[in-house]
Amino acid sequence: MISLQSDELLETTVGQHMIEADKVAHVQVGNNLEHALLVLTKSGYTAIPVLDASFRLHGLIGTNMIMDKIFGLERIEFEKLEDIHVEEVMLTDIPRLNISEPILKGFGMVINHAFICCENDEGVFEGIFTRRVVLKQFNKYIRTLNK
Ligand code: AMP
């Protein structure tokens, strides 16, 4: 097993590796499911954060949650999309990271989650820490070890 302990990478924080909030596709509390489905489809992501007007994180909304809500007994009830708000179906019990936490904590969390939402000390959403970022850093690190 390779020991990563002395590497500089481990001294970096989650905030140094996240995708910044202004580049993260999201929806707002109060948006309906039609809007959320549009953002999800256009962005190509299966789940995105739900924020309020002050950029505080309320949960995650995914295509599966939306589809599950509109599955009727005999058909998919697309007409319901307009009348249901994201907060009625979003997942609220979600993992979070503070931007100042060590990258190692993020590494552990993306084993079970494709991305983790990051907040500052005031609870304001700052971005997301993704599996892709972790794999990129890991790939870079392994290559430096082999030089
Ligand atoms: P990745 O590790 O890049 O495959 O991203 C994992 C997950 O993070 C994606 O499936 C999305 O749910 C989410 N994600 C990544 N980038 C963005 C983004 N720019 N905006 C919103 N969600 C994102």
Automatic annotation (TrEMBL):
InterPro entries recorded: CBS_CbpB, CBS_dom_sf
Spans traversing the lipid bilayer: none
UniProt-listed Gene3D superfamilies: CBS-domain
CDD domains xref list: CBS_pair_bac
Domain of life of the source: Bacteria
Protein name: CBS domain-containing protein
Organism: Bacillus changyiensis
